[in-house]
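Fig. S4 source data, part A: sequence.
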Amino acid sequence: MSRLTTRAALLASAWAVVACTQTQEPASSNAATETVGGTTPALTQAPTSAAPTPPQIETSVVQLKPVQPELVLVGKVAYGEDRYSKISSPLQGRVVEVRAHLGDRVKAGDTLLIIDSPDITAAYSEFVKEASDLEYATRAQELAKELYATKALALKDLKQAENDLIKARAEFRRAKERLLSLRIPASELDKPLAQQRITSRFEMKSPLTGTVVERTVTPGQSVGGDVGQVLFTVADLDRLQVVADVYERDLALVKVSQVARVNVEAYPGTDFAAVVASIGDVVDPNTRTIKVRAWVDNQEHKLKPEMFARLRLDVGDAMPFLAIPKEAVVEIDGKHYVYLVEAGDKYLKKEVKVSSVSAEFVRVLEGLTPGQRIVTKGAVLVKGQEVKG
């Protein structure tokens, strides 16, 4: 064998020895790693390196936390009880002019529409007749008194004249009240008959200042004296109410004049200042709740009636509670559970009783003690693995 061949063989043997003595790297693992909240055990056997890493599950130790107690009531935005009016016609007739339109701002006393009504004509004719009868009865009674004083009239005839006068006054008052109910000004009826200017045209006016939020009438339409036929709805949108439900157990936490905040889905993160106006006196037998009404300022008209809303009330000073994140609680069949972390990287489903104290935390009433470790993030994933397992 030549010298060159011998050297090549020696080099090949040396490289083989080096390769055999190198340490082999272990295969990568996708098991969950320790997070800020604590050590996260793997839910399943680690997948192969080609599979995506599952979302991490965070845990933490249950402990007392200083939380501002907050009562959150679910409700909806509504018109103020005395700040809106559904307007219907008090008489029958035909609409000859509509002066208010949807969205218009009107003042109390502004004319909304004009109706030509035969009811006014008939009522005024009756009023004129009764006024004439009253004048006649008054003169007859005065004459009867004079005749009786001179013994030219019997007592029974005097009493009859007085009785006729009483009846005439009653009929005149009835006819006048009828015209007043048709919104004829009292000042016009107090004038002498020759000076009165009353026509069949009836002007329907707004009873309050606000915005026209509903209109169901058009020119030429016939309307009747049915209170159920709403022609206009006028509402004050500058100040609305939130009507919410409070459960019996939380009723003592709500007080009249209590400051509150209102949130709606249309404006996330925005608080609207509110004040509790009234607390109902009756418990709904179906929901076991009591109605709470709170005034809320709405100068910018962002809030709309019938919007779903949350009424938030601070119900005490910040104090230490056994509080956990809302995300840690899962609901199953109407009950609330958390997942305890046990030795051996196992999870134990634990039923708890909780109540909401803030937007992020719930107060644990039963089921947990300080020092226990629970899943605080990814509890839904644990629940899913439990169902699969």
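Fig. S4 source data, part B ends here. Helices lie at 3-21, 118-149, 155-181, 186-189, 379-388.
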